[in-house]
Amino acid sequence: MVAVVADPEQPSFATQENFARWHRLTPSATWRCVNVPCGDSSRTAKVLVDMMESKRVRSGQLILLASGEVGRGVLEVVLRGALECAGVLAVDVPCAPLPFGELATHAAIRLVIHQGNEEEFGLVGQLQRADVDERVMRLNQAGATGSQATASAAETFLLELVAMVGHRFGI
């Protein structure tokens, strides 16, 4: 299952066009949109746990896809160990160092960030030092081509994560 986590009040890179394309490219994945308020990590964790229970999704089958502040919140929930999942794809998230030191996850973390994010090495450095399964794509495009490049980079990581889960479960 791929859960697209978003704040309904905030724009997201996961446009209808991107969403439809990704859905076609991953026929083995079930997709869900999950709305959470920005900045409330305990609520985010509860909403995601409730969704997993209601859909009977095991943690190893769940991929979380989010961007911006919501993406940062999802990332923190997973890295704190408040929610287990197979992977997180976080796009254009704030890259300031995490407000906690010990990272408690086995999830694959994939980040799509834009170069020039001066805080980038805070978050990425923490992930690397903690030996988290992380990969980062750094983009330098802006404008319309930048949004296309962002969607393309996200798609690459998304396909990787879906294939990883499919391989684990023989799908």
Reconstruct the topology from this structure:
Blueprint: E1 2-6, H1 16-25, E2 31-35, H2 41-55, E3 63-67, H3 68-80, E4 87-91, E5 108-114, H4 120-129, E6 134-139, H5 143-169
Parallel strand pairs: 1-2, 1-3, 3-4, 4-5, 5-6
Helix pairs in contact: 2-3
Helix content: 40-55%
Shape: globular
Number of helices: 5
Give the N-to-C terminal Cα separation.
12 Å
Structure description:
44% of the residues lie in helices and 19% in strands. It is built from five helices and six strands, in the order E-H-E-H-E-H-E-E-H-E-H. It has helices at 16-25, 41-55, 68-80, 120-129, 143-169, and strands at residues 2-6, 31-35, 63-67, 87-91, 108-114, 134-139. The protein is globular and about 35 Å long. The longest helix is centred in the C-terminal third of the chain and has 27 residues, at 143-169. It has a six-stranded parallel β-sheet with strand order 2-1-3-4-5-6, with helices on both faces. 37% of the residues are buried. The mean pLDDT is 87. The protein has 171 residues and is of the alpha/beta class.
Brief overview, please?
The chain is built from five helices and six strands, in the order E-H-E-H-E-H-E-E-H-E-H.
Short key terms for the protein model shown above:
5 helices; single chain; alpha/beta; 171 residues; six-stranded parallel beta sheet; globular
